Amino acid sequence: MIHVGILSDTHLSSCSDSFRAQVQTAFAGCEIIIHAGDLTDIAVLDAFSGKKVYAVHGNMCNMGSRQVLPNSKLITLGGYRIGLFHGAWGPRHTVEERAWAMFPLADCIIYGHTHHAVCHRIGKILFINPGSFQGTGQFGAPGTYAILDIDEQAEKPNGLQAAIHELPPQS
Fold first, then answer.
1. Are 20 and 47 in contact (CB under 8 A)?
2. Is 155 within the bounds of a domain?
3. How far is it, in rounded angstroms, from Cα 161 to Cα 153?
4. What residue spans of 33-165 are helical by DSSP H?
5. Strand 125-129 and strand 108-110: pairing?
6. What is the pLDDT of residues 93-143, one digit of tens each?
7. How many Å apart are CA 120 and CA 103, to the nearest integer?
8. What is the 8-class DSSP label of residue 130?
9. CATH code assigned at 71
10. Are 152 and 76 in contact (CB under 8 A)?
11. How confident is the model at residue 90 (pLDDT cuts 50, 70, 90)?
12. Burial class (CB in 10 A: 0-12, 13-18, 19+), 71
């Protein structure tokens, strides 16, 4: 079993102690981290030392992040093809259609941008948007993230299971 931590839309210019503590707690059991864009600064990825990290840039990333990170990426984990992109540059209501067109052979598509957590299947494809890790909204909605479990022994598509989680309130 492979455990993958998924986050997006951190919108941070540095890797604070508070952020490090949050990700250490949220992703303690994960070997792999996927960031679906809008880190803002590449330094955010420093919080994941010791873990394999896959990331793409988003529309709010600074130039340094855009020069280092791709716009989209197709990765294979446990025999499953996972398409990754931020989801900007088009209408929000068509993001999954655009993702499907970008990654027609993917088993799972991960995206961000909307700050709205999503985890559902369309046919055999699992779509995941972890929401905004830092929380959003005028009413202080909690930050969210996703955990993807990949069972390499299970028959496709049953080997991909994911859930959305809320960050606990910060004291």
1. yes
2. yes
3. 13
4. 63-68, 95-102
5. parallel
6. 678 888 888 999 999 999 998 889 999 999 999 999 999 998 665 566 789
7. 16
8. -
9. 3.60.21.10
10. no
11. low
12. middle
Do residues 146 and 119 make contact, with C-beta atoms less than 8 angstroms apart? yes
Structure tokens given for 49: 């030392």
**Alpha-carbon distance 42 to 96, whole Å?**
26
Strand partners, 74: 83
- What one-character DSSP code corresponds to residue 97? H
Report the alpha-carbon distance of residue 83 to residue 106 in Å, rounded: 6
Asked, for residue 171, whether it belongs to a domain, the answer is no
- Whether residue 72 contacts residue 55, with contact meaning beta carbons closer than 8 Å, is answered with no
* Residue 41, both tokens: 């600064």
Six token digits for residue 126: 């699992």
Per the structure, how many domains does the chain have? 1
**CB proximity list for 79: less than 8 A, separation 6 or greater:** 152, 156, 159
Domain range for residue 153?
A: 2-166
For 49, other C-beta atoms within 10 Å of its C-beta total 9
In angstroms, how far is the first alpha carbon of the chain from the final one?
A: 33
pTM score: 0.92
Quick one: pLDDT at residue 136?
A: 66
Residue with tokens 């420093």: 46
